[in-house]
Write a structure and sequence with these properties.
The complex is a heterodimer of chains A (418) and B (480). Helix content of chain A is 20%, strand content 36%. Chain A has three domains: 190 residues, FAD/NAD(P)-binding domain (3-Layer(bba) Sandwich); 133 residues, FAD/NAD(P)-binding domain (3-Layer(bba) Sandwich), CATH 3.50.50.60; 90 residues, Immunoglobulin-like (Sandwich). Chain A starts with a strand and ends with a strand. Chain A has eight helices and 30 strands. In chain A, the strands form eight sheets. In chain A, strands 1, 2, 5, 6, 7, 8 and 22 form a seven-stranded mixed sheet that branches. Chain B folds into three domains: 216 residues, FAD/NAD(P)-binding domain; 146 residues, 2-Layer Sandwich (D-Amino Acid Oxidase, Chain A, domain 2); 84 residues, Arc Repressor Mutant, subunit A, CATH 1.10.10. Chain B is an alpha+beta fold and 480 residues long. Chain B is globular. The N and C termini of chain B lie far apart (54 Å). The chains are: A alpha/beta (418), B alpha+beta (480). The interface between A and B is large, with 53 and 59 residues. β11 of chain A pairs antiparallel with β23 of chain B, so a sheet runs across the interface. The structure holds flavin-adenine dinucleotide (2 copies). One flavin-adenine dinucleotide binds next to α1, β18 and α9 of chain B.
Amino acid sequence: MKYDLVVVGGGPAGLAAAIEARKNGVERIVLIERDRELGGILQQCIHNGFGLHVFGEQLTGPEYAERFINELNNLKIEYLTNTMVLEINDKKEVYILNQELGFRRIEAKAIILSMGCRERTRGAIGIPGFRPAGIFTAGTAQRFINIEGYMVGKKVVILGSGDIGLIMARRLTLEGAKVLAVVELMPYSTGLTRNIVQCLHDYNIPLFFEHTVIDIKGKNRVEGVTIAKVDNNRVPIRGTEVFYECDTLLLSVGLIPENELSRNAGIEIDARTSGPFVNESMETSIEGIFACGNVVHVHDLVDFVTQEAQRAGRGAARYIKGEAIDNGVVIRTVNGNGIRYIVPQKLRLENLNDEINLFMRVDNIYNNCRLDVKLDGKIIKSFKKRKVTPGEMETVKLKKSDLSTYNDCSLSIEVVKE
Amino acid sequence: MFDVAIIGAGVIGCSIARELSKYNLNVALIEKENDVGNVTTKANSAIIHAGYDAKPGTLKGKLNAKGNLMFDELCRELEVPFKRVGSLVLAFDDDEMKTLGKLYEQGIQNGVPELYILSKEKVLEMDPNISDNIKGALYAKTGGIIGPWEFTIALAENAVENGVNIFLSNEVVDIEKKDFGYRIITNKDTYDTKYVVNCAGLYADKINNMVSNNKMEIIPRRGQYYLLDKTVGNLVKYVIFQCPSKLGKGVLVTPTVHGNLLIGPDAEDLIDKTALNTTSEGLNFIVEVARRSVKTLPLNMAITNFAGLRARTERDDFIIEEAVDAKGFINVAGIESPGLSSAPAISLYVIDILKNIAKKIEKKENFNPYRRAIPKFIELSEDEKNELVKKDKRFGKIICRCESITEGEIVSAIHRNVGARTVDAVKRRVRAGMGRCQGGFCSPRVIEILARELGVEMTEIEKDHEGSYILTGPTKSEVQ
Ligand SMILES: Cc1cc2nc3c(=O)[nH]c(=O)nc-3n(C[C@H](O)[C@H](O)[C@H](O)COP(=O)(O)OP(=O)(O)OC[C@H]3O[C@@H](n4cnc5c(N)ncnc54)[C@H](O)[C@@H]3O)c2cc1C
Ligand SMILES: Cc1cc2nc3c(=O)[nH]c(=O)nc-3n(C[C@H](O)[C@H](O)[C@H](O)COP(=O)(O)OP(=O)(O)OC[C@H]3O[C@@H](n4cnc5c(N)ncnc54)[C@H](O)[C@@H]3O)c2cc1C
């Protein structure tokens, strides 16, 4: 099998990337999805709040996905569902498995990776205690409830105040369960402010900052969890333990980009994002292999995923047509004070159209601050912010003309308190 | 009426069952759990020890080295993952070098082949990730790693294939002495038998005390572990021990047979035989000790932690003997480490005791020593993969993405003669849910497949032990 472009993963990133590549003239495209249907994680996100930036309206996850799936069909882009990509390599060969075709090799001119991410587990954060049933990651519980139609518990404690945990607090409450508390290790939430208000405050669910779960009781099914306050080093403080009787513990303790395929292909991974290093076209360290969406870094808004994926789609089209420019000025992005990461990590100036959006996360909550953008040490732009938090991705839009330079150089962004 | 009833289907009970299935005997294997190997046998270091640890003259000393050498053939016959990677005991100072000398001597007396005392340079050449602070090491070439539950399941399957009757979810609550032998009463049924073999692990004392006035007491000794992701499974090439010392008795760092990295255990005597919980103290301790062995310990790659309980007795040795006041009642108790390594030799030893008691027992003519493992789809060649998918489409569908496990493998795990009934039983047989996402993605599908294949509701599927229900009911059942 031979294609110009293989897109791995049919979530919002893969869908938007495939559509954009077709609109930019790529003929033979195939999008591959291991699940029963397209749409990725959106299929289980039946709450609304999707698409404010892209469509200017509030859609549910499946509604947002549907618009892209319809467009994919209108553009007659081929796709395979129930098909797993098992391996890719630097020769741009893609190995797939499904029930009809069996194990097959596809040769591609370009590949776009959009495998999304997975959830961190209990093991990853090392909660001691028994190992009973009744411990779920929030996304797994969401799948059980919203797609399979089964309840996972009656009295629930949620660890982690990320968006998925917050949304599940509301969802469980609406389904008749009692959510006793949401417990957060850090002094701030990693979820969107609107979700804290709409999912916790509206239902009188308490949120405890600087607390964690230190023990799990129950040999067969969860019977309760012990919660304690932590000090500045995140170490539980003796004497602050409180036991909550419950049958379920939900974990919403972070997402990790799903990069096993990328890693095995030899693509370089940025330790800060856990996703591939990418350039302005979302191209990874292997020429002709692009990446977008949660596989690159974890996004909180799907609209940004879509924008980033469109960039990858255009980049892949340009690469396939031989129009990408690989010599010329290169600008590397560098984290300044207060910045945890910036994507893309590298900009090839000649390939920029007229502007570029940089995505980044800050490392703490800052009120009334500025984001200073420096090119080779000189401030070229400055953005005032009322509040930035690690829970909400920041974006900075730069014009190509802002970046006029004749040498390779670095662009840094830092948080400055006003 | 059974000839022999074995109580407890851990690695010891299953080993003995398989050995007995070579004879013309009517054998029952009675287990209180809903799966075999689901207590101590599923939570240990999974090491096939070489056999230099035990004092010469003890049963441990006799049976470990002998058992070790039986694994190649056994694992070939039963298609069980086993690797003789070799083990190293590290010494950090001159005192510990002396300890190595003692271990070496013990090993020779116990009949352990291929033991060497190596210099620091040689050790670091063999495995550069080992700490620079060592003085030397004892190298045992025969040390190995195994899949303990695969081994136990394979033994059970092969035993059943050869005629052993297995009764799961049957807890022995009483035993009566009768003229013909014993009547075993469980929470489900009664079983009459001429002879009893007590392999009840942590509860071997309870079973013994049902028939014997020679009371026994088992003390649970907990050991805790961290399991790390496959991306760091090759951190060390060998099983790395430290000298037994006050800091740590046997905290090891080892690759597992599946390519993960395992760190642990500590040792803590308890009273509660069900205390299979981990504690932050225990986990911190093993990390602290393990850090001495290797240059770096990538703990951020941890995917789970767990604990196991050793069945210790005051005798400090295996107890394998007929009870003095109960004819035909054989205790196989106090089987702490190296019980797994000794299991094949223990079963031969038990058969000898039985032969002495029963006088004439005959070998079967049609014993089949082979057991076919479930095909590991991802490890097959391209052609084999396609052939299998053509024959059975369910092999074309990946259910567990971390470990690349297909629906075909899961269905086959359910329909074996000792088939999986729970999500964790599937995991132990084919590794679905064993990977870095720990079932986050595949558990809903595994539940669906189990329910479909067993013809029950999704809500009836349990995670592991009885009572470990996962789903509480359909949605919208709580609000009217
Ligand atoms: C629970 C939850 C709630 C959210 N709520 C909101 C919200 O309210 N508003 C909002 O704007 N955003 C929200 N988001 C964020 C947004 O939905 C995600 O950022 C977005 O879905 C990510 O898109 P993606 O395409 O990168 O990944 P995904 O949607 O995860 O898609 C990845 C796809 O790749 C497939 N795949 C992976 N590996 C392979 C392989 N080897 N072979 C074949 N296919 C493969 C997967 O099956 C999946 O379908 C939420 C996210 C989550 C997880
Ligand atoms: C932390 C730790 C590390 C270890 N490391 C190693 C190692 O690396 N190498 C090694 O060789 N050994 C090791 N061991 C020892 C090894 O795990 C044990 O020796 C072995 O698993 C014991 O098997 P068993 O069959 O006796 O016990 P178990 O596996 O516990 O089996 C006993 C069975 O009896 C059943 N039972 C109990 N009561 C009843 C009843 N009333 N009715 C019916 N059934 C009943 C139980 O449910 C259980 O399934 C380790 C042990 C521990 C705890």
